[in-house]
Automatic annotation (TrEMBL):
Keywords: GTP-binding, Magnesium, Metal-binding, Nucleotide-binding, Signal. GO terms for cellular component: lytic vacuole membrane. GO terms for molecular function: GTP binding; GTPase activity; metal ion binding. The keyword Magnesium applies. Transmembrane segments: none annotated. This is P-loop containing nucleoside triphosphate hydrolase protein. Mg(2+) binds at residues 11, 29. It comes from the Eukaryota. Belongs to the small GTPase superfamily. Arf family. GTP binds at residues 4-11, 51, 107-110. One of its GO terms (biological process) is protein transport.
Length: 124
């Protein structure tokens, strides 16, 4: 399951994993997208969940029972780190998520001025 604030780049990330292609033509996700991606003998079933405030309460439903959660952060958007931190910790405090592996992915690090990893760790 891929979650994180709106415009952090979740759908773009899943597109790149799925088709190896980057597109500027990405629209904000409504609710969620489901995508199956095959890599060798592995099939990834990916929930790409919407990040706008009204959808955040459904994250838990898509994270509950998965093999891993990826929390995507826009490492350029420092003003949203506090909100990202709040939402991440809110999600992790759900009893249903106990023991689920988590990857925090600092995205948009192609842009000049993005927060380095240790700043992201501190902020989140
Ligand atoms: N420079 C740069 N831009 C990115 C990157 N990833 C995504 N973007 C841009 O960020 C914007 C939002 O990307 P989306 O993939 O739609 O973000 P999202 O997290 O799926 O957003 P929601 O579906 O609304 O939750 C788009 O304009 C993307 O082109 C990246 O790694 N670098
Ligand atoms: Mg999206």
């Amino acid at each position: 399951s891929v979650v994180g604030l709106q415009a952090s780049g979740k759908t773009s990330f899943v597109n790149v994993i799925g088709s190896g292609q980057w597109s500027e033509e990405v629209v904000p996700t409504v609710a969620f997208n489901f995508r199956k991606v095959r890599r060798g003998n592995v099939t990834l079933k990916i929930w790409d969940v919407a990040g706008q405030p009204r959808y955040r309460s459904i994250w838990e439903r898509y994270c509950n029972g998965v093999d891993a959660v990826i929390f995507v952060v826009d490492s350029m958007d420092k003003e949203k780190f506090d909100t990202a931190r709040f939402e991440l910790h809110q999600l992790l405090s759900q009893p249903t998520l106990e023991g689920v592996p988590l990857l925090v992915l600092g995205n948009k690090n192609d842009l000049d001025g993005h927060a380095p990893v240790n700043e992201l760790i501190k902020a989140l």
